[in-house]
Fold this protein.
Amino acid sequence: MASLGCSPESALIFLGTGCSSSIPYTRCLIRPPDPPCTVCVQSLSLPPHQNPNYRCNTSLLIDYCQRDDAHKYILIDAGKTFRETVLRWFVFHHIPRIDSIVLTHEHADAVLGLDDVRAVQPFSPTNDIDPTPIYLTQHSMDSMEKKFPYLVQKKHKEGQEIRRVAQFCWNVIADDCNQPFFASGLKLIPLPVMHGEDYICLGFLFGEKSRVAYISDVSRIPASTEFVISKSGAGQLDLLILDALYKIVVSILILLSVLPQTGSHNVHFCLPQTLETVKRLCPKQTLLIGMNHEFDHHKDNEYLMEWSKREGVLVQLAHDGLRVPINL
């Protein structure tokens, strides 16, 4: 994947590119199928920086270089594997901290690592530190109050012990393309998409010099959102980062009417629908995320390169640890 921009100083770091279960699937190792799952077996055979088939929960770090050359680190989602991604990639890429957090939604693979954010915050036994800003919808905020009351609560009750926990400043944002917000100085435009027809998830559009759209959990993009990120609408994207859970829909699930016969999972894009969306939006480059163990990184990128040459739109699979320089 080529670098974006003429003199990039900012960068996008893919902390995780896998599905909610992450890769390798535990069941493929403790109850091996016959024949064995080659992707899951291979994913344990190499160190992380040489192993694109090892995939943690989908998460992106924006290393945003501001006009004064100061770097701000903006995290999109902190799922179940967040601690693992810190050990693997914060050290590898010399990431010193997180300045703000943006949440796409409140499912486990996006938020259950929030407790571990304290590991990248300054140490204080009395929690006397500046809180990390978090940006999320009201629906997600309501869920956080139930999942993590000790992270949301500010005032202690009489007699309640002080415990060292991650410190956050919670900021509710709208799920509306017309209501942008700023995280650590970077302007982000919410991109509401359907994550199943009963659930709205957010993607995000950001970047002035290079336009980037990040959509991690999607089964359908509403027309109003598609207009904002389409070449024929609000203008061509420099980079699209897009969901692709399965390579194809499992036929038995279609026969059982569990999944629609449209080339898509009921709450996620699958590769056929992902590629149709890419052709419709026509970005300059696309990186795919959220893949399950059907995807073999090297083999499937060869297929995608052939598809890209045929269609004239560059598409490749991202991988954990990938760093893409970009001029934001």
